[in-house]
Please model this.
Amino acid sequence: MTLRALIFDVDGTLADTERDGHRPAFNLAFAEFGLDWEWDIPLYGKLLKVTGGKERMRYFLENFPPKQIPAGSLDNLITELHRAKTRHYGELLATGKIPLRPGVKRLLNEARDAGIRLAIATTTTPENVTGLLRHSLAEDAENWFDVIAAGDIVPAKKPAPDIYFYALQKLGLAPEECLAFEDSENGLRASLGARLKTLVTINNYTEGQDFSGALSVLSDLGEPNTPYTRIAGNSFGKSHITLSLLKSYFN
Ligand code: XBP
Ligand code: MG
Model:
């Protein structure tokens, strides 16, 4: 089969959004609602077990119950908190201080030049994706992607494969024609569940997770002058991931 499309996860893969983007945005939303909940860096690492911001808040309340839980409908509270969190996250993105990870822009440009299609498969909201693309990649970057599969468009979030099935269906491609990029075990379970070859680039929150089944596990995509570090799998003997290298998986 020929490689026809690259499908990217967003959080942790395109950019290190979790620690310095989503986490502070949740905390700003909690403060806005007069809640003394505070998700510090280690706690957030535990909460990342669950994908989806609304689902994560529910998991927090059930497993790390704070002293202060307002009366009334928790579902409504979570919906409103998530709306506020998404606004704060958008404002953080607009500062342009959340850069893309090494090699991401280079590889996206290379794929576009070669006519390889691009797609997104993420559990975060569509506006968070377009905000990141606009502020960290290019003003028109939303149009670089044929499909942006995001958020509640499928009911079951990663590690369920549904968001990848959705992206494949919209692309009109078979999994054998695509390659996925992920940073987390939950993400990898989702992409492998959709039978996608997957390359993993880790970050501080996901190092040490189980990445069995990945093509390769790397520190990042690398750049010509700042090579990636190989954690597992094929090292290719290269410093950075290129399209021709990815195509070698399809021969
Ligand atoms: C990302 C997530 C998201 C973000 C927060 O997972 O789990 O929930 O942390 O985004 P993945 P929302 O990278 O596997 O897609 O608050 O918009 O859900
Ligand atoms: Mg991710």
